[in-house]
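Hey team,

Filing this mostly as a record. A colleague (T.K.) asked me to run one chain through the structure pipeline before their review meeting, and I want the input and output archived in the tracker in case anyone asks later how it was produced. No errors, nothing strange. Just documentation.

Input sequence:
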Amino acid sequence: MHPNTARVLNALAAAGVEAEIVEIPEGTPTAAAAAAALGVEVGRIANSLVFTADGEPLLVMTSGAHRVDTAVVGARLGATVRRADPETVRAATGFPIGGVAPVGFPAPVRVLVDEDLLGYGTVWAAGGTPHTLFEITPADLVRATGGEVAGVAG
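Output structure:
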């Protein structure tokens, strides 16, 4: 098992969440690719997108059916929100772009969870690499991440 994936499973277990990692050998570079590989609708893919809010890392877990509107998120937070560069993503989360999991960070990161994810029984999130995913209930996702439920799309 990849060390990143083990870190994700350990963080989930520490939050009281049992999960099984699914490996997709060809990778899942987009929500659409992940949905197709899993045979689920794209809205059930919980994308982990890293931004900065006034320079501080911010993880936005958004439905694969949406695009994050940085103006909406910025207005909610009272901050200037920008997409993080790859170095910031790796430093804040310990994961590469394409494999950013919602848990297992080297230090706490503020998390927003797209309110639309709560409309699904389960969602799929990255498991620490571009080839791994796990299924989780939206309630467990919010609890495990300590996230705030919010509208993130325009």
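Quick notes for T.K.: The chain has five helices and eight strands. The CA atoms of residues 111 and 147 lie 5 Å apart.
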